[in-house]
Amino acid sequence: MIRMDQLIEKKRDGEALSESEIRYFIAGYTAGDIPDYQIAALLMAIYFRGMNRAETVNLTMAMAESGDMLDLSDICDYAVDKHSSGGVGDKTSLVALPAVASFGVPIAKMSGRGLGATGGTLDKLESISGFNVNLSEAEFRRIARDTGLVIGGQSKTLAPADGKIYALRDVTSTVASRPLIASSIMSKKLAAGSSGIVLDVKLGRGAFMKTLEEARALATTMAQIGVDAGRDVVALLSDVNQPLGAAVGNALEVAEAVKTLQGDGPADFHEHCVEVAAHMLRLAGQGERWTDLAAARAEVDRALRTGAGFKHLHQMVQAQGGDVAQIEDTRRLPQAKIRYSLRARQSGSVAAVFADRIAWATLTLGAGRRTKGDEIDHAVGIEAQVKVGDAVTAGDRLMTVHANDETSLQAALVEIGDAVAYSDSPVDPLPLFHGVIDGNEL
Ligand code: URA
């Protein structure tokens, strides 16, 4: 018989837990038979002692199987999904998913809400009046079949063990543990029914992982979990030391996504979406189609420039009850009352655009949540018009702040007062990507 106190002791002393021990505590905790304090002690032991590859995979599978495992085989033979670890200005799903769907690859995605600096994909989509993310499973499947693209909220029965454990980690300082983060993310991806997964692991000042080493280690662990669970996984390591694209804030990001789907987006964001979508297509092609990544990139680029991807976003918005007039003319999306231009104090090359400062300013404006129940203001945010490496002249516009009241505007201006750094000598632009990890090579 497995005893919880012995299991905690084992991990405390640095030993590896067996699959049956891991399944025991996940099943017991999900059912409410094991108290919070024992799981909290175990989580802290995992935090300090870590987990090996087999333990991490077993933990992920046990959490994935703690609820419903979505079966998408009636929608497509091979489902592809993407996951971003989150970064400032990251609205990639709104562009990459319609772009992939435009190639006849169905996308049925469950997304999350944001906690922290900016909203998640669901919050962004809810900038569109009437857009419904709370779909029943039958509706979710019907829209996926009819339009080839659906983005819904995560069902309550998806990896419930992760939901309980995440809440406990949040209040016991055990979030920042690589095996716990990787298993948490991957349990939801595996339960959501995808066969191929593109992980977009962000790094830098505007991301959870600050350094390349941390991001690479997390990406590697997640990719290992995926391949050991029989999935195809590719992880991209992407830079968000400065915001991705210009827009940060919900409706502003939807507007920028629409522009990008019409071939008119910011160059860095356009390229980022092309890369993510090309990798998704490559996985979906299963070695028979889109085998050449450069050719896949060129096809996605065309889908953006011709508006093929936009057509799919339009169909999805219509199918999910959203007001399509708002994406046909994005000036109809929620608009903030005040627009303030932040201007360059000096001339020179832009040496840094600190994404974390911009994120905090956006939160101050009301675009994100400080705690779970917070209402968000879809209209507010910041557009950062400069990138590292740009040459600016004193007085040039650096950013536009969209605020709904004078107090939050002033507070946001304090945050972004030093968000741009200058150099007298030329500065190289930042790379978009720092590497790619192919799960099959691990
Ligand atoms: N996102 C998740 O879903 N889980 C974590 O542990 C961290 C980020």
**What would you give as the CATH superfamily of the largest domain?**
Nucleoside phosphorylase/phosphoribosyltransferase catalytic domain
Net shape: globular
Strand order of the largest sheet: 1-4-5-13
Total beta-strand segments: 13
Main pleated-sheet profile: 4 strands, mixed
User: Spans of 5+ residues with little confidence (pLDDT < 50)?
Assistant: none
Radius of gyration: 22 Å
Distance between the ends:
35 Å
CATH architectural designation of the largest domain = 3-Layer(aba) Sandwich
Helix percent band: 40-55%
Instruction: Give the integer mean of the pLDDT values.
Output: 95
Distinct bound molecules: uracil
Number of helices: 17
Task: Name the beta content range.
Answer: 15-25%
| Highest-level CATH class of the largest domain | Alpha Beta
* Estimated structural class: alpha/beta
Number of individual domains:
3
Q: Kindly report the CATH topology of the largest domain.
A: Pyrimidine Nucleoside Phosphorylase, Chain A, domain 2
| H/E series | HHHHEHEHHEHHEHEEHHHHHEEHEEEHEE
Topology overview:
Elements lengths: L3 H9 L6 H13 L4 H14 L3 H12 L15 E5 L8 H9 L5 E5 L9 H5 L11 H11 L1 E5 L6 H11 L7 H14 L4 E8 L8 H17 L3 E8 L7 E2 L1 H12 L5 H19 L7 H13 L2 H12 L5 H4 L9 E6 L4 E6 L1 H11 L15 E4 L6 E2 L4 E7 L2 H11 L3 E4 L9 E6 L4
Parallel strand pairs: 1-4, 2-3, 4-5
Antiparallel strand pairs: 5-13, 6-9, 7-11, 8-10, 8-12, 9-11
The structure holds uracil.
The site of uracil (URA) has 6 residues, from helix 9.
